[in-house]
Amino acid sequence: MTPVDRRDRLVAVLKSLVAKSGYTQRALAQQLGIPKSKVGYILTGQQRLEFVEVADWLKVLEITPAEFFNLLDSPVTPE
């Protein structure tokens, strides 16, 4: 898997988790303490996440790192 493939997979999993959580981009941004525009850029793959930011997203989305990395490795995007 290329770095671009991994980035695309990360974005797809995050988008799916956000949709499943019921958060709007605005509400998610408020929970994370970041601008809504940054959430949008991340969810469209236009901005990368630092590793520590991933941890913040997982906490807000109520998913463990182990669950998240399992989703990244699975062949199907979670619904």
Task: Provide the descriptors you would attach to this structure in a database record.
single chain, 79 residues, mainly alpha, 5 helices, 68% helix, 0% strand
Outline:
The chain contains five helices and no strands. The protein has 79 residues and is mostly helical. Helix 2 (25-32) crosses helix 3.
Question: Any chance you could write out the topology, listing elements then pairs?
Answer:
Layout: H1 3-21, H2 25-32, H3 36-43, H4 51-60, H5 65-73
What does the model show?
- This protein is mostly helical and 79 residues long.
- 68% of the residues lie in helices and 0% in strands.
- It has 5 helices and no strands.
- Helix 2 (25-32) packs across helix 3.
Kindly report how far apart the N and C termini lie: 22 Å
Can you give the helix content as a percent range? 55-70%
Mean pLDDT rating: 92
Helical stretch tally: 5
DSSP E strands, number: 0
Largest sheet: none
Structural class: mainly alpha
What multimeric state do the chains show? single chain
Shape: globular
